[in-house]
Amino acid sequence: MGVELTTIHWLYLLFVLVILVTMCLRRDTSVACLAGIFLLGLFAKGSLYQAVSGVYTSFIFAIGELLSTILVISVIYALSRALLHTGINSVMVSPFTRLMSSPAAAFWVIGLLMMTISWFFWPSPAVALLGAVLLPAALRVGLPAIGVAMAMNLFGHGIALSSDFVIQAAPKLTADAAGIPVQAVVTASIPLVCVMGAVTVAVAFWQLRRDFMNGTLATGEIVADKVQAVEPAALLSPGKQRWLAVLVPVLFLLDVVVMYSVKLQGGDATALIGGTAVIVLAALSGFAYGHGALEQITTYLTDGFQFGFKIFGPVIPIAAFFYLGDSAFVQIFGKVLPAGSQGIVNDLGVALAQVVPLNAAAGAVTLSLVGAITGLDGSGFSGISLAGSVAKLFSHAIGGGTATLTALGQIAAIWVGGGTIIPWALIPAAAICGVDPFALARRNLVPVATGMAATTIVAMFLI
């Protein structure tokens, strides 16, 4: 027998549904989350001032949980700007342009390189790092600009961001909401990411090749004849650019070796990557700017923090609400839940299992739909806490499979909202390639839907 559900449980569930509806309407969820936190505090404490204080305290709790993730993304973005301005990134990727001997080769080289860089630098900075160098080379061998945009988008904002194996920002959000270790989500996501990536990219490549061979690519999908690349200032000599272009990726690869050799996971692994990024940023600034390095490092870090909080600004309110579904509720509002309660979400999951007969298939389909709905705002990250919370609820009803359901919801949310089929989330890749974001979204729709269906079926057997 589970704990008897109270008004707090039903109120939490009501606001989960309100947030889902708000996302379906493509509206921001911050107000709904704030109202949910306030009313939960009011019913829990019976005090107006404590409910008001609880809103602020929940934000502090969420920021504390997310701060390491925000910090590492900020410093990595700062480093990416330094690599771009010094021209080191151009030297880093130039050897790969020689592998682009045909349209098909260009598609796969761009995609695989984008995926690799995105694991370490995140997709948005990676688009800027790679686009100006690889796009002209791809056009020269006959790959249309829409093909370049698809490769960068599906491999970067799709495969790399939905897995997030290195920085682990996405798994941390979903794992925290599901109440399981980050590494459990990462491990469970590996087969799902492989299926999603392989099916989606294969369908996308087949469709692109078919239409290219038939000459049926829409004119609105083709870039203008001249692509204007931004040339970096002469901050470093060609010799320094070359050896730094080798040293920087070697340092990050050494991080990966250390992570696996001493079994660094979660926050420890993130700290190693972040520390390396800060040290490399400082060294690059010293080489490039000399006496002006002290001021330039501050400028880069400021830009990085602005980027980090811009990305996670919409995430903090919704994370603050969904953290209340677990241990945060007791920390913020005290022990007001019934004796024997395992947290609001756990209690709801047990109650659901007693009322509705669920199975792995129903759980997998539900998490795919929930993840897709949370991605409709075009963020990909603002709703994955909800996916983790729902995964925890359903896993209690099913009797297991928390990590797989959480990973599935994460993948669905990020593939939809992280920048593959929501037009306003496609702007970075579309802009750098000079294509219409709506045309790119239409191109990605069928491949992503096919991949999501295949991944959901596989997840049913893994739960």
TrEMBL record:
Source organism of this protein record: Anaerosporomusa subterranea
Assigned keywords, A-Z: Membrane, Transmembrane, Transmembrane helix
Superkingdom to which the source organism belongs: Bacteria
Keyword Transmembrane listed: yes
Transmembrane segments: 6-25, 32-52, 58-79, 99-121, 141-161, 182-206, 243-262, 269-291, 311-334, 355-376, 412-433, 445-462
Protein name: Transporter
